[in-house]
Amino acid sequence: MDINSINVEDMDFRMDMFLKQEWQDARIKIPEEMFEYGDDSVTLPSSFFDNMWQPDLYFLNSKVVEIATLTHKFSSVTLFKNKTIRYAARMHAIVACQMEFYHYPMDTQVCPITVESFSYNNNKMLLRWHGPGVTIIPELKLLQYNILPLILEETYAYTVEKNGNFSRLLVYFRFERQIGHHLIQTFAPSTLVVVLSWFSFWLELDAIPARVTLLVTCLLTLVTMFTGLRSDIPAVAYIKALDLWMAGCMISVFAALGEFVIVKVLHGKYNAMKAKEAKLAKVSIIYKTHILHGVLFLITVT
Predict the structure, then answer these.
(1) In sequence order, which ranges of 199-230 are alpha helices (DSSP H)?
(2) Which DSSP letter does residue 32 get?
């Protein structure tokens, strides 16, 4: 199996796969001359397969499924002497996945694929994984995700539309987002902007233009960065981890700006109070000087 791309906008992913099915059909009558001496199987032409009973399996959550073709379908049918039929075909599929972005960009998307019979319930058809079930080519590398080990299940489920219990095969694909891209593009730049805003604490209190320019520039940079990041994923109604990070960065810069305003106001009030105290002290000294002159004048007259 090969996974080509994961589309977060449409919430689906595309995969190329070799699908293999095996089943036994006791109704088949096999002439002995079909097999060569020493062989226990024979490859049938496609015209034979069209006249045989076939499992009507389908992917429940698929958007598009098609068998690869060039001049003919890439499929083969093998018949064994014990009346086992093995069908193999190369297929392309686009599978829907209900993605959640609560922890974006540290998220892990779990995308199940469900296989079920369309018309045969569990009393008539049971589905089982054979061997490892699903294998992914070792060379597969995705640009933004790491593929975690697959989880396979065999279960039953009631289908309302078909009014019955049906055997199901499930495989869970888990895509872990690689954090390296976001460390370079998001977390490192926003952290540097916040640290840059802290340099305003070392500026003189009277350097109002420098402080305001620095802090407002940092705040606008974060807003622009946040706006650009929102285009990478679809708009969702809930809060993501990235939203909390960017909100924390903007609050830090805004707090630095608020701290400057508060300190400036308090410093102005402090200076006004000190000026008032100095004025009162000066008035008190003048008043005491006048009283002293008056006392001396009385003593002199006396």
Answers:
(1) 208-229
(2) G
Q: Is 164 helix (H, G, I), strand (E, B) or coil?
A: strand
pTM: 0.78
Alpha helices in 43-158 (DSSP H): 46-49
Give 218-242 pLDDT, tens digit per residue.
Answer: 999 998 888 888 777 778 888 999 9
Tokens 């895509």 belong to: 175
Paired tokens of 290: 């006048």
Residues 175, 149: contact at Cβ < 8 Å?
A: no
Sign of the CA dihedral with 202 first, then 204, 205, and 206 last: negative
pLDDT of residue 70: 46
Determine whether 24 is exposed, middle or buried from the number of CB atoms within 10 Å of its CB (0-12, 13-18, 19+). exposed
Q: Return d(Cα 7, Cα 13) in angstroms, integer.
A: 6
b/e sequence 101-131, b meaning 16+ C-beta within 10 Å: beebbebebebbbbbbbeebbbeebebeeee
CA-to-CA dists, residue 69 to 52, 91, 92, angstroms: 21, 9, 10
Domains plus CATH for the chain?
2-177 (2.70.170.10), 180-289 (1.20.58.390)
Q: Structure tokens of 270?
A: 């402090």
